[in-house]
């Protein structure tokens, strides 16, 4: 029996059981949960970086977005509130659309 020891999506145990298998799970406490969200974000980011085509990249981005939703809820904000923070930062500092790569800043 493979051992996973990782955070999974809510329906994964039911999917496993529907396949005629059994699984062992438990519910994480708050500190375990946010630690595992962070671990899963690193895992999904690595998978995004390894994607070799746009379809796979979008799949991994959707996983990251789901984790961002979970992390936002953990921190007590809605996605709309998170989006408002993002929009305010973009208004004040810009986004990343112009692909600007800062090389150096001279001290005058």
From TrEMBL:
InterPro entries: MSMEG_1276-like_NTP-PPase_dom, PRib-ATP_PPHydrolase-like. This is Phosphoribosyl-ATP pyrophosphohydrolase. It comes from Sporosarcina ureae.
């Amino acid at each position: 029996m493979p051992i996973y020891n990782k955070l999974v999506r809510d329906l994964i145990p039911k999917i496993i059981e529907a396949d005629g298998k059994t699984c062992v799970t438990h519910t994480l406490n708050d500190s375990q949960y946010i630690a595992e969200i962070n671990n899963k974000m690193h895992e999904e980011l690595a998978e995004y970086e390894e994607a070799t085509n746009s379809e796979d990249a979008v799949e991994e981005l959707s996983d990251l977005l789901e984790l961002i939703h979970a992390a936002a809820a953990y921190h007590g904000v809605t996605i709309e509130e998170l989006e408002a923070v993002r929009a305010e930062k973009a208004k004040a500092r810009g986004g990343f659309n112009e692909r600007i790569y800062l090389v150096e800043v001279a001290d005058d």
